[in-house]
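Ticket #4471: structure export looks truncated?
Reporter: QA, pipeline team
Priority: medium

Steps to reproduce: submit the single chain below to the structure queue and open the exported record.
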Amino acid sequence: MLIYMAATVAVFVACFLAYRSRPEKYADLMGVSALLSVVFVINNLLVTLYGFPEVILAAPILDAFLAVMIYRAWLASRESWKVVMVGALVAQLMLHVVAISMWKLSALTQHGLYLYVVAVNAFFIVQLLALGCVGVGHGLDRLRAYLSSRRGVPFAADAHQ
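Actual output as written to the record:
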């Protein structure tokens, strides 16, 4: 859980820095990363309070809310990372429906529960990568622009020659 928390914080920071640089372009990125962080915290609080597998009853609500919000943002400005996010969330919703159905029918084994957790975590990693690539990509673009603007400026080591 700590690794996922560190990754979520890192993605949030990258998205925040991109937003601070160009708020008009990265407002959706910042909003989605904030929502994903909030859903991550709420989900972990629910796991702590109610235990597992009972918490999977709340997971579809959180993921559906996030998917609808991202889909609405996609309708306003169509960017590919939003499609990846909605696709990963829809896949998670399908996993939740299958896991809850099997659990309520007493057909969910320990192995099935393990596969469910691994698959949900894999789709969460896809979501983090989709957001992180946009935020880090913007950071690399800013670094490239900064370094290319320094080409005409002599370095301190060159000043003594």
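Status: closed, not a bug. The export was complete when the record was re-opened. Leaving a note from the reviewer for reference: The mean pLDDT is 85.
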